[in-house]
Amino acid sequence: MPNKNNFELVAPIDPKRFLTRRIERVAYASDASFYRLVPRAVVQPNSIEEIQALFRFSQEQRVPLTFRAAGTSLSGQAVTDGMLVDLSKHWGRIQIEADGDRIRLQPGVIGAHANTALQPFARRIGPDPASLDACMLGGILANNASGMCCGVVENSYHTLASITIVLPNGLVLDTASQAANEQLGNGAPEIARGLLELRERIITDPALSERVRLRYQRKNTTGYSLNALLDFSRPIDILSHLMIGSEGTLGFIAEAVLHTLPDKPYKYTGMCYFGTVQAAAEAILPLSQSGARALEIMDRASIRSVENLPGAPAALRALPESAAAILVEYQALTTIELAECQRQARQVCQSLSLLEPASFTGIPDEQAALWKLRKGLFPAIGATRRQGTSVIIEDLTFPVAQLAQAITDLQVLFARHGYSEGIVYGHAKDGNLHFSITQSFNTQSEIERYARFMDEVVELVTRKYDGALKAEHGTGRNMAPFVEKEWGAAAYQIMCELKTLFDPSGMLNPGVIINPDPKAHLQNLKTLPVIESEVDRCIECGFCESVCPSRRLTLTPRQRIVLRREIARQNETCDDPELLAALNQDFVYAGLETCAVDGLCASACPVNINTGDLIKQLRTQNISGRGQRTALWISQNFGMAEKAIGLGVRLGHLGEKIIGVNGILNLTHAAEKISQQRLPKWNTAVPHATLRIPDTRRTAAEYVYFPSCLTRTMGRPPGDAQAASLIETLLVLSQRANLNLWIPENSTGHCCGMPFGSKGYQQANRDMLHHTITSFWEWSKQGHLPIVLDASSCAYTLRSCAMALTPEDHARWRQLTILDPIEFAHDVLLPRLNIQTQPVNVILHPNCASRKLNLQAKLLAVAKRCATSASIPQHLDCCGFAGDRGLLFPELTASATAQEADEVKSQEYDGYYSSNLTCEMGLAAATSKPYRSILYLMEKASEKISV
Predict the structure, then answer these.
(1) Cis ω before 379 (30° cut-off from 0)
(2) In what helix (H) or strand (E) does residue 128 lie, and over which residues does it extend?
């Protein structure tokens, strides 16, 4: 790989998007599979011209090129020791066409975001992989991903309208163009001619033609999409459909237009229990014929892995050891269709051999609970895996009529090879079974055990059942050695010729799909050294990345964990002292300082890992004893800190008037150079200091109002020094609602502890929590009065602080009622206020804390009651302000809010609202719009006379 002095070779790519530092390369060494390869560089192109430049560079310099979108692929197709092309940063455009009947998507679009954009049209994309909230269209298309309801007719192959492709020779083709076929013939005549010759070879071989047709009547992503050579006669149409499922080995998918499908709003969901797998398998055909959209089968081991989850039916634990279950769901466009689905479900279930009558529901929460069991299978095995092991998920296709025997055969293989934890589940309607096992690759004997097991799995699938080794996850590296075994020599030869036809230099994602090495699936295996307990259970699936505020600036949660594992690996082996030193040095900024510790990663993680907990622990380790003592002193004298903050805010606004924001920033940067310390950066979004806290009376108080420390010190909106403070606004609303709120006279000096805990000052955090909980207990009359807060982050912190409390404090804490401002506004104030809906259009920012408290719907309901129109951005993200992170590292907030800010600024709104002062500061700084607490909107909309 050329060094940074040779970037002219890849002009016009900005060197800032050509990543060669060791921390950057190691961070991208893993995808969701059990393979690991460290790239020589990571490139983040932003245009087709840059893709063309990369193709030229790759071929001239003989450097392999691999495209990667979300990196959630399970088969090793998104890792390389060559040049990794990261598409997640600059390829996220969505465009709705034909009133929602079509959608135009770039490869960096998250699948769920495409469906969100289609919601106003009651449409959706066809593919529905379980990873839809994290995976991107590049991977969905390149793997021909499907899912629980997609089957073989709603996948990318069958819903493709057109596609824009860049071939390795640099030719760009938009297949929607009438001239596309001619352009292919002129720009790549050997490909156009070769496709027709290969098509002719299949057509003139009746046995091969029949085999190709039959294999795509079931789910199959093993090898290339040979059905394209039969389904189409024009080279351009063959090419466009060959790209689907090609796993980035034939060219680059720059954009695709998909036909959309109706998003059926009515669902009818139930669980059917059977005495045996055979009985469950026999029920698949009649359930499918009754109109069921989803049929998810689970063997007894699968059920056992989730039967103790919260909310799991007690019936699961009582099932016999031979039992199996099928999760059944019907979907309908209208209530009339729904009634017919209910009739069909009742009728078919009467004919089934059930252990107990099936119980169906149309209630969304109950349906979600059932699906949580099915989706909890993967997390369940991941959460209980032994240290140092990976979770391996394979997906196979069997004839539906032989599904029960196939499950039994897989269970026999588990027992024979020592995988006692193995489970079998899957999309029964399509004959698509997944199995999950845990596997260590830390010793040669473990690798050999896995090799023997996989050899028998391949024999079972290909010889006994003539099934598919890959149903929906892509061939990748782990099944590449077995493609010929499944397809036969003639079909495999055509696949090899396809690869050579498109990529004669062999530089495009080599080793994936076509790999002559019979042991390729045993190379470059990922070892998992034991690391910090907070994150050791991570399976590196990447689901967390789409919600991480630092993902476009430095690292994601998965990458932080990958780096901790590499540091542990280097500490164990001492192979590369320079690498270890570089990772330790660079991890300070990339891993520690720019992590927002907002905990959203846990909400997206299959095993509920909060990488922020790791970061807080690492920050603690980096703090000296003197630093801990200083923080403890501040916590014990917090009233003085509040006065200092208030004074600093006043001086800042005074300085802004005299020398301007840039003048203050210049002074700050100079002070940073002298002190060698990061200092807060002033900006115009900093609120004004709170002048005074109004007097309230404890007599007849119905609620205790605890203003947050920031509201007490800087609670007046920026831009208007005379505006009412947030404290005054909440008191006015309560008076209009005929409610008595009491602000304790000694509230100064109390805090939720987050400013200490997030930075790693654990003792100061515990001390502050003890102080605050003790006062809450006294203020609330031993828990009898609810306590209202005006900041969602404080409410969430105080409602989730159990692990940091002493036993005595914990006993008191459990009896306290702590209300988030959104809860108080929606549940208490709204029913008591006479609201006059304002003729305004407002935009909301449900911050991380409110989303973790599941208050997004309540925030929207309050806004819609007070305004004629209220909405939440499609690109809603954490603002990354994270207390004072946004002042210390403003680049974090700028990066985290970039997409949301662009969306917000694309049109004018009459109001901008959230429920947390620092988040409002972050969004105001990013958008130059006046974000305020939702309480200000309520005050405008409520009449001044209470009812």
Answers:
(1) no
(2) none
What would you measure as the largest C-alpha separation in the chain, in angstroms? 93
Mean pLDDT along residues 552-573: 96
Q: Nearest-CA neighbor of 335 among 264, 270, 262? A: 264
Establish if 536 belongs to a structural domain. Answer: yes
> How many domains is the chain partitioned into structurally?
5
pLDDT of residue 310: 78
pLDDT at 1: 43
pLDDT digits (tens, 9 = 90+) for 833-850: 999 999 999 999 999 999
Give pLDDT tens digits for 597-621: 999 999 899 888 999 999 999 999 9
C-alpha 496/C-alpha 623 separation (Å) is 57
Residue with tokens 């840059």: 50
* 3-state class (DSSP) for residue 425: strand
Based on the fold, state whether residues 161 and 230 are members of the same structural domain.
yes
The domain that contains 57 carries what CATH number? Answer: 3.30.465.10
Length of the chain: 947
295 beta partners: 328
Give pLDDT tens digits for 399-425: 999 999 999 999 999 999 999 999 999
DSSP state at residue 695: P
Regarding whether 247 and 267 lie in a shared domain, the answer is no
> What range defines the domain where residue 555 resides?
529-610
Q: How far apart are CA 131 and CA 113, in angstroms?
A: 12
Residues 147, 303: Cα–Cα separation, whole Å:
20
Burial status of residue 234 (CB atoms within 10 A of its CB: 0-12, 13-18, 19 or more): middle
CA distances from 575 to 35, 580, 829 (A): 20, 9, 63
Please, which residues have CB within 8 angstroms of residue 132's CB and are 6 or more apart in sequence?
110, 111, 112, 115, 147
Mean pLDDT of the chain: 94
211 and 63 within one domain: yes
Helices (H), 362-488: 364-375, 377-383, 403-417, 444-459, 483-487
In this prediction, what percent of the chain has a pLDDT beyond 70? 98
Q: Which of 823, 858, 885 is the last residue of a domain?
A: 823
CATH of the domain at 441: 3.40.462.40
What's the pLDDT at 3? Answer: 47
Q: Is 326 part of a structural domain of the chain? A: yes
Q: Would residue 509 count as lying in a domain?
A: no
CA gap 751, 636 in Å, rounded: 11
Q: How confident is the model at residue 377 (pLDDT cuts 50, 70, 90)?
A: confident
Q: Tell me which residue of 945, 944, 942, 935 sits closest to 728, measured CA to CA.
A: 935
Query: What is the C-alpha separation between 553 and 897, in angstroms, rounded?
Result: 11
Q: Phi and psi at residue 718, in whole multiples of 5°?
A: -70, 155
Does the pLDDT of residue 339 top 80, yes or no? yes
Which residue, 441, 473, 505, sits at the end of a domain? 473
Quick count: other Cβ atoms within 10 Å of Cβ 281? 24
pLDDT tens-digit readout, 177-224: 999 999 999 999 999 999 999 999 999 999 999 999 999 999 999 999
Count Cβ atoms within 10 A of the Cβ of residue 148 and give its class: 0-12 exposed, 13-18 middle, 19 or more buried: buried
Confirm if 440 and 319 have CB atoms less than 8 A apart.
no
- pLDDT the model gives residue 721: 67
